[in-house]
Amino acid sequence: MLRIPLQKFLLPVKITLLLIFSILLLHSQGAAQGDPKTCLWKLKSEKNTVYILGSIHLLKRDAYPLAQTVERAFNDSQVVVLETDLEALMQERVQKLFLSKGLYDGKETLRGNVADATYEFVGRRTKELGLDIERFSRFRPWFLALTLAVVKLQKLGFDPEHGVDTYFFDKAKKAGKETKGLETAEYQIDLFDGMSASLQEKLLLQTLRDLDIIEKDIDRIVAAWASGDTGTLEAVMLKSLREYPEVYNRLLKERNMNWLPKIERLIGQDKNYLVVVGVGHLIGTDSVISLLKGKGYSFEQ
Fold this sequence. Notes:
50% of the residues lie in helices and 10% in strands. The protein is built from 14 helices and five strands. A hairpin with a 4-residue loop joins strand 1 and strand 2. Helix 5 runs parallel beside helix 9 and helix 6 runs parallel beside helix 10.
């Protein structure tokens, strides 16, 4: 059996972004000594400040400390808003729901629900990871996509327990700060489970192909991350995802639109907020930052 705790799959994951950005902070930690541009945005109203931070969902332990500007944003905030309530992800009912949605019932199998070429591709990739494809015979395509992404990154030494989301969630709890979620765990599971069989297969194919992106583009991405170069990040990160517009719309664009009014309601309150979401949601023309700018809000990066 795979020894990967279920909660590690329940992080708010966008596969391509997860695969690439999970390793960046390790290479840019030297920048923490000063105040460089980072993937942190600051929106200041007459009454409060709302910080929006691009998160990396998996990291190595030695990726810390984070940049001082990021730590100061946390210290200056009374409430931390995450994509979802991480505490809820640990509940038994959520983990049972995740399993019930992620596995086929009865005699249904992965092989019988994807094209032969896709299944052969899965076989090659699982073999490269040192795994037997038969261990995944009952996995639905979306569940397998998440599984292989996490396995790949864990083999490289990265872990959701050291992700930026988890880091600030734990830190907020210790400091007695309030935490909130933009989405429920059930909603995030349904994002994947609610995909058509065809769309799930596209997500799986995208994930299988993007397992190579780390080696291919890492130097360029690290340089862009270190300098806060969102233009380069967009060009490198979103190119692959946009080849699958249905996946892009469902996992990125639609969620950004859903978050927009929730984040707007934070502006002008009597508390400061640190909003922590996957960095892929903060780059590109459909990003949260672009949507807010389109409504007249000004940011400092």
